[in-house]
Amino acid sequence: MAFGGPLTVTTPTDTQIVITRQFDAPRHLVFACYTQPALIRRWLNGAEGWVMTVCEFEPKVGGKYRYEWRAPDGYVMGMGGVIREFEPVERVVSAELFDEDWTGGETVSTLIFDEENGRTTLVNTFVYSSKAARDGALATPMAEGMEYGYSKLDAVLVELAA
Amino acid sequence: MELAEPFAMSQPAISKHLKVLENAGLISRTRDAQRRPCKLEAAPLAEATGWLIEYRKFWEKQFSQLDDLLDELKKLEAMAGNNN
C-alpha cells in the first residue's frame, strides 16, 4: 500500500476551500485518475457504505460531467458541471453544482497538478458563490455520512491493498 | 467595558470586534442597564470546527483509495515498460 503526503484543508478566504495533497506517483497518472471515468469511480466512491452509481466525465473544454452516489439508506446525492479549462496533464477548471444546491449556486473548482521527482502535488481550490455556500459545502450529507463507520475503514483499505 | 480592560484597544475597537462575533453567531449579547453581557455560543463554534474535521476525513478516505489505485497503475506501467 502506498502512502501519499499529508492532506491539508484550508479556508484562506470566506468563499474558498483549498485542498492540498501529495501523491507518490507521476502527474500523468494522477491526472488520469481525475479525468477518466473508469478510474474516477475506483476512488471517488464517497463516504463509507456509499456507492458511486453514475460517473460520467467528458475530458475536453465544454465537456460535461456527472456523478451520483447512493447512501446505505437509499438517499441519492448527485452533482455535475461543465469543464471550463482542460490542459493535460497540468490543469482542469470546472463549474459544478449539487442537485440539491445546498451550496447556493455554482462552485468553481481548479485542479493544479505539479510534478517533482516523480511525485505529484495536487492543489484543488474551490471558490463558492458566498460564505454561506462555502459553509454549506463543508456540511454536505456526504461529509456527515462519514459517520457510517470509520471503524470499518482500516479493514476496507487492507482488502483493497491485498 | 470589562471585556475591553485586558486589551490595549479602545472601547469602540472592542465593540467592533464583538459585533463581528455576534453577527457570526459565535456570541450573543443582552442588555442589562449600562452593561452588555456577552455569552459565548459554544455549539456553533464546535460545529464550525466539526464540519472541517468531517470534510477532511472525507477527503482522507478518498485520497487513500487514490493512493492504492496509483500504486496499481504504476505497477502496470512498469510491467508494460518491461515488455518493450
What does this structure look like?
The complex is a heterodimer of chains A (162) and B (84). Chain A has helices at 27-35, 37-43, 131-138, 141-144, 153-161; strands at 8-10, 16-23, 51-57, 64-70, 76-87, 91-98, 107-116, 119-127. Chain A is of the alpha+beta class. Chain A has a single domain, classed as Alpha-D-Glucose-1,6-Bisphosphate, Chain A, domain 4 (2-Layer Sandwich), CATH 3.30.530.20. An 8-stranded antiparallel β-sheet of chain A has the order 1-2-8-7-6-5-4-3. In chain A, strand 3 and strand 4 (64-70) form a beta hairpin. The longest helix of chain A has 9 residues, at 27-35. Chain A is globular. The model of chain A is unreliable at 145-157 (pLDDT under 50). Chain B has 84 residues and is mainly alpha-helical. Chain B has 2 domains: 1-40, no CATH class; 42-84. In chain B, 65% of the residues lie in helices and 7% in strands. Chain B is built from 2 helices and 2 strands. Chain B has helices at 11-23, 42-83, and strands at residues 27-29, 38-40. In chain B, strand 1 and strand 2 form a beta hairpin. The radius of gyration of chain B is 26 Å and the shape is rod-shaped. The N and C termini of chain B lie far apart (78 Å). The model of chain B has no long low-confidence stretch (mean pLDDT 80). Chain A binds chain B through residues 1-4, 7, 9, 11, 17, 19, 21, 23-25, 29-30, 32-33, 39, 42-45, 47-48, 135, 137-139, 142-144, 146, 150, 153, 157, 160-161, and chain B through 48, 51-52, 54-71, 73-74, 77.
Secondary-structure map with pairings?
The complex is a heterodimer of chains A (162) and B (84).
Chain A lengths: L7 E3 L5 E8 L3 H9 L1 H7 L7 E7 L6 E7 L5 E12 L3 E8 L8 E10 L2 E9 L3 H8 L2 H4 L8 H9 L1
Antiparallel strand pairs in A: 1-2, 2-8, 3-4, 4-5, 5-6, 6-7, 7-8
Chain B lengths: L10 H13 L3 E3 L8 E3 L1 H42 L1
